Each structure stands twice: as structure tokens, then as C-alpha cells.
Amino acid sequence: MTWFIFCYWYEPDAPQDPVGLVRVWSLADALTQAGDAVVLFPPRYRSASNSFAFKVVPIRLIFLPLIRPLSYALFSFVHGLIRAVQTRPDVVYYRWMDSPHALILAKLLRVPCVCEVNGEPVPDWFTEKSRFSLGVKHFLAGFALRHCEHVVVLTSGLRSLLHERYHVPLERIEVFPSGTDVQRFVPQDTVSSRLQLGLHQSLLYIGFIGSFYRYQGLSCLLDAMVLVKKVCPALHLLLVGDGEVREELRQQAKRLELENCITWTGRVPYVDVPVWIGAMSLCVAPFRGDRGETSPVKLFDYLACRRPVVASAIPSVVSTFTAECGVHLIPPDQPRLLANAIIALVQDPDRCRAMGEDGRRFVEKTFSWAVIAQQLRQWIHADTRVKTHAHSHVL
Q1: Is the domain defined by 190-365 classed in CATH 3.40.50.2000?
Q2: Per DSSP, which regions of the chain are E strands?
Q3: What separation in angstroms does the CA of 73 have from each of 17, 29, 68, 140, 244?
Q4: According to CATH, where is 3.40.50.2000 located in the chain?
């Protein structure tokens, strides 16, 4: 099959590896390795100029408010039409981006359209906007999702939400959670990783990797660190990433007198993430209770590197992970419970080692990108065969 994949993601500093596009890069690579042809239409960030096994058509953006997403929709639509003259796609796949331009392109080309929804199309925080904007977003989402041949969601909760809120038939919605690249995210030697990163061997490191958004629960993690330090003074926190609440977190850390036990790395290249995970004895994902429906990508990466994880027991996490998968679940927004879980694990290296082994086996079996891509291909192939057979029978 030939895939046209459209994906828009905006980050102010146009980083080398926009975190929102990691899943799309990985999916495109896995489909290519499975033998399909892929043409990807990402914004023209620096990462779009890298060398890939699939074809990349970078889309120029006009960096003005409101015009920016519209420029991506218009320019990517035009590039898609031009590319279709050279290579006709069998499938148009796009991540929902408040614009149905990929769906319109698929209808013009008379090929199936797959829409990926990796979070609520109109998240709760958007209710702060005007009622008119809210109505437009809901209308666009409902129209697009009801007219796509296939809808991919990352959690079962999102599947129910799309059915109930936008009346998308359940038979057109399939759950394909995020995964990880088990060839890139492999267990690293702890000592070597710390040497490579210039970290002290005498400290115990726990860590978080990702964007610094409020829903990540990092404020709760800092509160928990105050309690952890009283019991484990040699424990050090690695915060790998950046984001909108960075300065708030730094000020909180200063008030709590945690400056000496936290390393703030800023953004790091995606290729270096496994080394940072390898330097950690324990990884954390302290999502807030109001996180909403999404697939927590970082947990798959942590587990692939054979590291135990402490994570908030929000619905999208509980539906995928259990203690047998290498994840210790705790109620969200509870600093003391988070601290107790961290202390218990760092003081029990044998249990940490066993959890890491369980986690690696878990993602290898079910959540590698190769497995997910193959399941997606089979689903679309099967549905296409059924429709073709049905139409032939009618004719």
C-alpha cells in the first residue's frame, strides 16, 4: 500500500524532534519496514530535513496566529494533490488537527481516509474560549469523524467518547495505542549511561522525560520529593524536557529548597532519550487526575529500556498497564503516596530489576511499532476486502 500521512504540530522554537510528531515518525517508519510506501507531510521543522526511509514533503508555515494552522492545511492539501499525480495513494492517514483538508483530499482521490485521534478533539481547557469557537471546533470534528472510513484512537475511553459525543459508529473506530521502537529503546548499562552524561555514580537517580505541561503532574512530583529526601538523601531527580510550566516548577523547587537535588536538562535530542532513561533507577509518570484520555507514550519508552515505572492510575493508564507490566500504579495528585511508592522501590533493587524485565517483555510482545503497524495494515486490508466483496455482490 501507499500511504499519505498528514500531521500538524506547533512548538514555538521549532525543535529538532517535536514531541507531538514522534508517534507519526515512528508509524511511518514501521509501515515502511513492513513493505509499504509512505509519503509524510510534516511542518518544515529541522527534523523534516533528516534522512528517512520514507518520503518526506516538508510543508512551509506562515508563523502568524491563526494563519499558521491554516497555512499548513492549505499548503499540505496542494502538495498532496501534486504528489498524487505522481503517486496515487491507497490510504490517506491524518492526525486530527481542526481541519478536514486531508479528508477532502481523500474524497477527491476516492481512497479511504483514516483519522487518528490521540486526545479529546475539543479538550476541556478549550471551554475557556468563546462559545462560537467551541461550536466551530465541535462541528468540524463531528463532520470529519463521521465521514472518515476509519478512525484510530489511542484508548478505549476515546472510542467511547467519539461514539457518544460525535455519534461515530463503533465499527469504524479501532483502538491502536501508542508504542515504542524496541530497536531504539533498549536497556542501557546504568554506569555507562551516567558516565556518558557526566552524572555522579554515588547518587540514586529517578526521572521524568517529556513536555512540562500542567497535566503531567510535575508539581505533585516536587512535593513528593520533599518527603523522599528525608528518607533517601542520596536520591536525585532528573527532569528531562521543557515546556510552558518550566519557570513555575523552578520557582516551586526553590521554595521547597530542592535546587541541589534536581537536574534540569532542557530539551534533549530524541536519539539521546534512551541514555537518559538508562541513567535512571526508576522512572515516574505522575499524571494529574484530570489528565483526560490519551495514550502515555513515555511509559512504553521507559519499559522498553527495562526500567520500573511509578505512574498515576488514571483511566488511560489503568486500561493498559498493571503491576505485571512493570508499572506501580498510585492514585493521582497524592504527593505522600507518590513519595512512598518511590521510596519503597528505590530501596528494593531486586523488585526494580524484576519489574524492568516484566516491562520489557510486555512492550516487545504487544506494543512495539512493528506489531502496531502490522495490526493497522491488517485492519484496513480486511475492511477494504469486505467492502469490495460486498459491492461486487451487489453489482
Answers
A1: yes
A2: 2-6, 37-41, 55-56, 91-95, 113-117, 150-153, 173-175, 204-209, 235-240, 262-266, 282-285, 309-312, 327-330
A3: 21, 23, 9, 14, 25
A4: 2-179+369-394, 190-365
Q: Does 384 or 140 have the greater pLDDT score?
A: 140
What are the backbone dihedrals phi and psi of residue 136, each rounded to the nearest 5 degrees, phi first? -65, -45
Enumerate residues 6+ apart whose C-beta is below 8 A from 110: none
Q: CA dist 163 to 91, 93, 142, 169, Å?
A: 23, 20, 10, 6
User: In the structure grid, which three cell numbers stand for residue 157, read together?
Assistant: 475511553
DSSP letter for each residue of 63-132:
-STTHHHHHHHHHHHHHHHHHHHHS--SEEEEE--S--HHHHHHHHHT--EEEEE-S-SS-GGGGGS-HH
For residue range 248-258, list pLDDT tens digits in order.
999 999 999 99
What's the confidence (pLDDT) of residue 120?
A: 82
Helix (H) or strand (E) holding 143: helix 131-147
Closest listed residue to residue 100, CA positions, set 124, 128, 130, 76? 76
Q: Does domain 2-179+369-394 have CATH number 3.40.50.2000?
A: yes
pTM: 0.84
- 235-240: strand order across its sheet: 262-266, 235-240, 204-209, 282-285, 309-312, 327-330
pLDDT at 389: 38
Using a 10 angstrom Cβ sphere, with 0-12 exposed, 13-18 middle and 19 or more buried, the burial of residue 316 is buried
Overall average pLDDT of the 133-150 stretch? 91
Cα–Cα distance for residue pair 174/154, rounded to 1 Å? 9
Per-residue pLDDT tens for 299-330?
999 999 999 999 999 988 998 898 899 999 99
Q: What's 250's DSSP letter?
A: H
Out of 102-106, 172-176, 347-351, pick the least confident. 172-176
The helix or strand, by DSSP H or E, that contains position 242, with its residue range, turns out to be none
| Residues 31/373, Cβ–Cβ less than 8 Å | yes
> Do residues 285 and 211 touch, judged by C-beta distance below 8 A?
no
